[in-house]
Every structure is written in C-alpha cells, then in structure tokens.
TrEMBL record:
UniProt keyword DNA-binding present: no
Sites where the protein binds substrate: T7, N8, N9, P10, Y11, K12, T66, F140, G141, Y142, D143, K163, H168, R169
Record-linked PANTHER family: INOSINE TRIPHOSPHATE PYROPHOSPHATASE, INOSINE TRIPHOSPHATE PYROPHOSPHATASE/HAM1 PROTEIN
Names of required cofactors: Mg(2+)
GO annotations of cellular component type: cytoplasm
Record's protein name: dITP/XTP pyrophosphatase
Organism: Pyrobaculum aerophilum
Zinc found in the keyword field: no
Broadest EC class assigned to this enzyme: hydrolase
Length: 187
C-alpha cells in the first residue's frame, strides 16, 4: 500500500511514515506545491488542497494541515501556525504569552486523502498547554513548547516513539490508516 504526501517538510514525511507503517502503508513525498486557501478551519484548508492536488495528480494524494490554537491569544496562531513559526518562531510566541496565566492550547491536524475524486478528512486533536521555555531536542516546529494534557514533558522531550502514538497528527493519520485498511483499497 502506498500514498503520496504533499509536503516539503522531511520531518513530517518521516513522522507520517512512522505512524502509517503498522497499517502496512508506505508514504512517499509528492513533489507538488500545496495550494493553501486562507481559512480559519484546518479541515477546510486540507479538503481544498486535497481536491486541487487530486485533480492534477490522481488518487491516493494526501494533504495535512495543522493549527495550534492558544487560548490566551484568542486561538492565535490557529491555521497560521506554520507562518507564525517561520516569522517570529518559538521565542516570539513565548513573548506574546509573557505574563499570561492561561497557557492552554490545542493542536489540531486535518489529514485529507483523495480517492476517486472524493476527499475524506480525518481530524486529530490534542489539548495541552504552552511551556514557559523551549524544552527537549526531539521533534520539530512547536514540539519544544507544547505539553500534552496530563503530561509534564513537551512533545520534544517525549521522543518520537511516544509522540507518534499520542500527537494530533498521530490521531488523524491513524484514523486515515484504519480507514484505508478497512476499505481494502490497495488490491
């Protein structure tokens, strides 16, 4: 079984490959620019991008979109998390939270796959909070500052094995993997 993930992020490709391996699904990178509409909902963004890429590259194209919703910032950066990370980075986000007592946040991932011109979207969410400083060496992106609910370690401190079982992306892509396996689409 093989799907094509539209991403330029090698860490995301490795993470999704690890998550889908137990389902017998191989992941290859689709070398295509993902069209990303501006919207507040990662589900809408992922669906639109999958529809666009499916029309150009055919079936088994997968797109994911992730948002980080920080309560004290009114849900910011939300679906603009990647842009915010590239422009102000972790230090900038932590600066915005200086003095904030409420550090609750939710990571949300929407994984969309196109098969037969139809798009299915799978959503994973993890609630948690933002650390006061970056911690840990693993992961990528916001992993050094996001602490999942019920834990004291950031994604970056938990390590790949644990993160790939509990993360927002793990939840979304595990649903996708189970759906593909149950549909028996890879004959």
């Amino acid at each position: 079984m093989r799907i094509r993930l539209a991403t330029n992020n090698p860490y995301k490709l490795a993470e999704v490959s690890h998550i889908l391996a137990p389902f017998g699904i191989e992941v290859e990178r689709l070398d295509a620019e993902k069209v990303e509409i501006q919207h507040d909902d990662v589900v809408v963004i992922a669906r639109e991008a999958a529809e666009f890429l499916c029309s150009r590259y055919g079936d088994f194209v997968v797109v994911d979109d992730t948002g980080l919703y920080i309560e004290a910032l009114g849900g910011f950066p939300g679906p603009y998390a990647e842009y915010v990370y590239r422009t102000i980075g972790l230090k900038g986000v932590l600066k915005l939270l200086e003095g904030a007592a409420d550090r609750r946040a939710t990571f949300k991932c929407a994984a969309a796959i196109c098969i037969g011109g139809r798009v299915e979207v799978f959503v994973g969410e993890v609630r948690g909070y933002i650390a006061h400083e970056p911690r840990g060496r693993g992961g990528f992106g916001y992993d050094p500052i996001f602490i999942p609910e019920g834990m004291t370690a950031t994604y970056a401190e938990l390590g790949e094995e644990v993160k790939n079982k509990i993360s927002h992306r793990a939840k979304a892509f595990s649903q996708l993997g189970a759906w593909l396996t149950n549909k028996n689409l890879f004959k």
